Amino acid sequence: MQRNAIPLVLCAVLFAAPLCARAAVGSKPPEEGSVASVYQQQNALFVPGQFTLEPGFTYAYSDSNALTLNGFLALGAIFLGNINVSKVTSNIETFSLQATYSPTDRLQLGVAVPYLMRQSTYESVGVQGSTTQASEQTVRNGGQIGDIAMLLNYELIGQGHAYPAIIWNNQLKSPTGRSPYGIQLQTQPQNNNLSFPSSLATGSGVWSYTTGLSFIQTTSPAILFGSLSYTYNFERHVPNINSQPPSAGGDVLAGNLIGIGFGTAFAVNDKMSLTFAYNDAISQETRLRPDGGAWQNVVGSNANAAALALGVSYALNSHTTFVTNVMVGLTKDAPNLQVSLKVPYAF
């Protein structure tokens, strides 16, 4: 499995936006669009009969460097052997469309459809055996649908003066995107140190179910929020699990994931709000089992993607909100930079 397919799952952590609010202070957010936007971002705003259509765009950039030493250290200071320096740079543009509907003041149903365009550049030294000359190879996909998700959010407890609102969040994601399993690795003819995939994945390749709780509490002038989630990936049989010939079918058990997040938001005025948050997603190793064989761990497939986020939302009117978000990765598994824009419209 490609390591650079991991950010596809991790890049799904984005901020939504807002509309109108309901009820009184202490149990529900006030009517200001800026505060309602924060509640909407945390899946904590339920307006009976309201339908929301939310187009969005996200750009994610990441790079990684690797140094491989094949030799030995002589006299405790001189390295004798081959040195290979490689770099991978990835750019992912995601166009998304999410639709939600609240049949009651506690229940929200929705569906989210992503469309991804990816480009990765692989660099390595080793041209004609040289340890100084480098070459590169760029792999692109022309755009393809990602994993479609179905959403269900339910308010377990409404916010009170002494306790936060608690929302139960559920997501079922289907493997509609291009699977990372079975993608073949190729070697550049002039540089046998440079290997690259024949195509790029746009999905996880397996069915997954995410469940968790989010919490939100108004403590004027700030709003506090947090979340805890768990993603379970279902075992799935795929026709090819090898990245090199020959083809071999087998079972895939992608690593499950724990997600945590917390932050605070401030309503600058009745239209604009600022959000500061920390998000972390920790996944286990993926396991593969060839037909007739035993389970094997995919080395290096576990990840810890932590990021800091800054968001700004602006309520254009009672129906439309403009939401931007910038995330900066804190660990090597998180994208270096992720910028998103969403414009929800409520009917």
- Name of the top-level CATH class: Mainly Beta
In terms of DSSP E residues, the strand content is: over 45%
Low-pLDDT runs: 1-31, 69-81
The name of the CATH superfamily reads monomeric porin ompg
Number of helices: 2
**Over all CA atoms, what is the radius of gyration?**
23 Å
Distance between the termini: 42 Å
Tell me the number of structural domains: 1
CATH architecture: Beta Barrel
Structural class: mainly beta
DSSP strand count: 21
Keywords: Signal
Organism: Acidihalobacter prosperus
Protein name: Transporter
Signal peptide: 1-23
How would you describe the overall organization of this protein?
- The protein is mainly beta and 347 residues long.
- The protein has two helices and 21 strands.
- The chain has one domain: monomeric porin ompg (Porin, Beta Barrel).
- A twelve-stranded antiparallel beta barrel has the order 1-2-3-6-7-10-11-14-15-18-19-20.
Quick structural gist:
By secondary structure, the protein is mainly beta.
Which labels suit this protein?
347 residues; mainly beta; Porin; twelve-stranded antiparallel β-barrel; four-stranded antiparallel sheet; 4% helix; disordered N terminus
Mind sketching the topology for me?
Layout: H1 6-10, H2 33-41, E1 50-74, E2 78-102, E3 107-125, E4 134-140, E5 144-145, E6 149-157, E7 165-173, E8 185-188, E9 191-197, E10 208-219, E11 222-233, E12 236-238, E13 250-253, E14 257-267, E15 272-283, E16 287-290, E17 296-297, E18 303-315, E19 321-329, E20 337-342, E21 345-346
Antiparallel strand pairs: 1-2, 1-20, 1-21, 2-3, 3-4, 3-5, 3-6, 6-7, 7-10, 8-9, 10-11, 11-14, 12-13, 13-16, 14-15, 15-18, 16-17, 18-19, 19-20
